[in-house]
């Protein structure tokens, strides 16, 4: 498979290593610094690419994905913070007749964590004495907080816990609302990524935790997603891919 990398920072370089180790060819490398505003995302620059893997920043993602689709190329997007504009991107992808798969986190280990956390929260929802909370930590360079993964986990937990009506980032002062799922974000050092769902009871604590050792897990998942989305039409989530692979 021939791949274009849109975003050639630390994440893009790890994706390149994983892709080439898997026998794929990287035919274009487009760094954000070379692409204001997206002049590099042209049919000429992306010539030969079958799938583009996009890891950039929220303010660039929508334009990037629309231009990739307009070039007739399928795409994988690991950028977070742009999902409120998904309908715009969906229209462009559908008109172009290409495929797009997006996710806040392409780590397959995180997908296992999601399922374990959902199960644990659902079980503890039957026990009134347990309270549930969410903590996430990433490196100091990460711009969004909470992370896109944490937002997805928080929404998932709200669907399982009848006592929680919404989630809120743990900032401010005063008594906390027991109807709000508390989410804590940490940005420090070079933490690759950690997400933990805690279930606090009167006599014990249960924790479901995922801790990344680096970026390779994300890169492996992104390359697997590129292999899956190639030749498909429409907009997909990682759940669509996993339902296909794990069924």
Summarize the structure.
It is built from 7 helices and 11 strands.
Describe the model.
- The two termini are 25 Å apart.
- Strand 3, helix 2 and strand 4 form a beta-alpha-beta unit.
- The protein has helices at residues 10-21, 58-70, 86-96, 108-124, 148-158, 216-229, 238-246; strands at 2-6, 25-30, 51-54, 74-77, 99-102, 131-138, 166-169, 180-187, 194-200, 205-211, 234-237.
- It has seven helices and eleven strands.
- It folds into two domains: 2-106 and 215-246, 3-Layer(aba) Sandwich (Rossmann fold), CATH 3.40.50; 108-211, Dihydrodipicolinate Reductase, domain 2 (2-Layer Sandwich).
- It is α/β, with parallel strands linked by helices.
- The strands form two sheets. The protein has a six-stranded parallel β-sheet with strand order 2-1-3-4-5-11, sandwiched between helices. Strands 7-8-6-9-10 form a five-stranded mixed β-sheet, with helices on one face.
For CATH, the homologous superfamily of the largest domain is named as NAD(P)-binding Rossmann-like Domain
What is the terminal-to-terminal distance? 25 Å
The percent range for helix content is 25-40%
Characterize the overall form: elongated
Largest sheet composition: 6 strands, parallel
Q: Secondary-structure element sequence?
A: EHEEHEHEHEHEEEEHEH
CATH topology of the largest domain: Rossmann fold
Question: Which parts are unreliable, with pLDDT below 50 for 5 consecutive residues or more?
Answer: none
Q: Give the strand content.
A: 15-25%
Which CATH class of the largest domain applies here? Alpha Beta
Strand order of the largest sheet: 2-1-3-4-5-11
**Total count of domains:** 2
CATH structural architecture of the largest domain = 3-Layer(aba) Sandwich
Compute the CA-based radius of gyration. Answer: 19 Å
**Mean pLDDT, rounded to whole units?**
92
Helix count from the secondary structure assignment: 7
Quaternary structure: single chain
Number of strands: 11
Structural class: alpha/beta
């Amino acid at each position: 498979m021939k791949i274009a990398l849109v975003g050639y920072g630390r994440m893009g370089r790890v994706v390149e290593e994983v892709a080439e180790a898997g026998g794929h060819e990287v035919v274009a490398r487009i760094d954000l610094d070379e692409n204001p505003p997206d002049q590099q995302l042209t049919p000429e620059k992306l010539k030969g690419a079958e799938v583009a893997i996009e890891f950039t920043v929220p303010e660039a993602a929508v334009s990037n994905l629309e231009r990739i689709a307009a070039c007739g190329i399928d795409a994988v997007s690991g950028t977070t913070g742009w999902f409120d504009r998904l309908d715009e991107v969906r229209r462009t992808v559908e008109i172009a007749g290409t495929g797009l798969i997006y996710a806040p986190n392409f780590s397959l280990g995180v997908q296992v964590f999601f399922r374990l956390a959902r199960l644990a929260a659902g079980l503890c929802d039957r026990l009134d004495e347990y309270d549930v909370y969410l903590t996430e930590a990433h490196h100091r360079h990460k711009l969004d907080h909470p992370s896109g993964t944490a937002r997805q986990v928080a929404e998932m937990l709200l669907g399982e816990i009848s006592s929680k009506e919404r989630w809120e980032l743990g900032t401010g002062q005063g008594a906390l609302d027991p109807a709000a799922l508390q989410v804590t974000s940490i940005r420090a050092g070079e933490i690759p990524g950690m997400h933990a769902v805690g279930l606090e009871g009167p006599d014990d604590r249960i924790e479901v935790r995922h801790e990344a050792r680096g970026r390779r897990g994300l890169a492996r998942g992104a390359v697997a997603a590129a292999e899956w989305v190639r030749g498909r039409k429409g907009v997909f989530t990682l759940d669509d891919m996993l339902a296909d692979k794990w069924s």
